[in-house]
């Protein structure tokens, strides 16, 4: 008998990862806007913060329907933090250093590594290769 999976079901995990990545980018946007809002006293950065935070959390909530929460959260925070500090260094708000760049690359590498791990079975137990 053929699989009951509909064609759109096969693309759902990839879409969840794209939504998660977009949400991580939005995390960097809201974190940067938070700093620029000066304690929510500047209207435009405060508005950018509110919209980006709402969209970022909504995307994270959508992604965790297909990606395990711990993995999704680690990727979301890691990518968002790396982009936030990367932007701060690029705009010279924060000084850059070779060590800082190495550690940021480590954060991104770890987040990518979580994406590359096998999904495991439905019960949440990792699928191990045959011995």
Descriptive report:
Helices cover 70% and strands 0% of the residues. With 131 residues, it is an all-alpha fold. Helix 1 runs antiparallel to helix 2, helix 1 (7-36) packs across helix 3 (69-90) and helix 3 (69-90) packs antiparallel against helix 4 (98-116). The model has no long low-confidence stretch (mean pLDDT 86).
Keyphrases for this structure?
131 residues; mainly alpha; flat
Return Rg in Å.
18 Å
Strand/helix succession: HHHH
* Terminal CA distance: 29 Å
The share of residues in helices is: over 70%
Number of strands: 0
What ranges have pLDDT less than 50 throughout 5 or more consecutive residues? none
Report mean pLDDT, rounded to a whole number: 86
Strand content: under 5%
- Total DSSP helices: 4
Helix/sheet category: mainly alpha
- The general outline is flat
How is the topology of this model organized?
Elements: H1 7-36, H2 43-63, H3 69-90, H4 98-116
Summarize the structure.
The protein is an all-alpha fold and 131 residues long. 70% of the residues lie in helices and 0% in strands.
